[in-house]
Amino acid sequence: YISGKCIWAIEIESGRLNHVACFESAQHIDDFSISSDGTKVAISVTSELFVVPYDREQLAEARHRNDLIAMSECDQLAPHQTNTGASVVVTQARWSTDDTRLAINVKAPVNGIQSDLIRFYDISSCQYLDKIDEFPATRFDIDGYDDTPYIQNFSYDGSYLFSMVSYTRNDGFGHLYFYNTDLHRADSKVNPIDGECCYRDPQFSPDGHYIIFAYQPYVVDAVTQLYYVPYATLSSGGTFEPIPLPDGFLTNRTVKPQPALRPAASGQ
């Protein structure tokens, strides 16, 4: 996880906290996403994307962008740049399960306005990045996107499915959307809880079968709840029960839960 300009790792079983890296000269660190096989990491430092080996010894010594450039094994991603040599503004990165594709949240002009876009690349060759898709852009409409073109975060199942929400209220809660890059088809305003807004921080389970998200009713003094449900049942019209949480656990209406899921242990 990111704290200020440093990255830390916590061992779930022991609770041991380990320092990974600090970039004191950076303005900010936006993302630190480890590849599925644990050999590489995508880092957004001052909104520049670097993909480098996940070498804990080297990362512990890295302090500046030049250190990341020296570590990189792929010039196209150290940092990621436009054809004119300008750095692409990147705030998030998500890996495919086979680590040959990378989805990134970039800032780019849409109808003359700087907007958040998800770009989906084949990165299997460091000589050339093949752009597979870009959305929402011309692919589908997100409620209010023309006025508030923000995608605070997005979820990727590691294959073809993506999820995100509109920027509707309370700093990032909105309608729930899914997009299939294989079919180029979107499911808009899925809104599984009584067909109502608002959601945030959807996250697929590691096997892609489940999704967890935060839900906050569009009412005064709404209380945020977490739901963990099978993805295939979202549009069934069924009733879903929230995860039991301690009283007062999510009382701040602008809270950003950002849940993280890990593979279930064998036999569970």
Q: Can you put this structure into words, describing what you see?
A:
- With 268 residues, the protein is mainly beta.
- The protein has two helices and 17 strands.
- The strands form five sheets. The chain has a four-stranded antiparallel β-sheet with strand order 7-8-9-10, with no helix packed on it. A four-stranded antiparallel β-sheet has the order 11-12-13-14, with no helix packed on it. It has a three-stranded antiparallel β-sheet with strand order 1-2-3.
- β9 and β10 form a beta hairpin.
- The longest helix is centred in the N-terminal third of the chain and has 7 residues.
- The chain starts with a strand and ends in a 38-residue tail after the last strand.
Compute the average pLDDT.
Answer: 93
What is the alpha-carbon Rg in Å? 19 Å
Helix percent reads under 10%
Q: Given the helix and strand composition, which structural class is it?
A: mainly beta
Q: State the end-to-end CA separation.
A: 26 Å
Compressed to H and E, one letter per element, the order equals EEEEEEHHEEEEEEEEEEE
Shape: globular
Number of strands: 17
Tally of DSSP helical segments: 2
Strand order of the largest sheet: 7-8-9-10
* Uncertain residue ranges: none
Strand count, sense and closure of the main sheet? 4 strands, antiparallel
Strand content: 35-45%
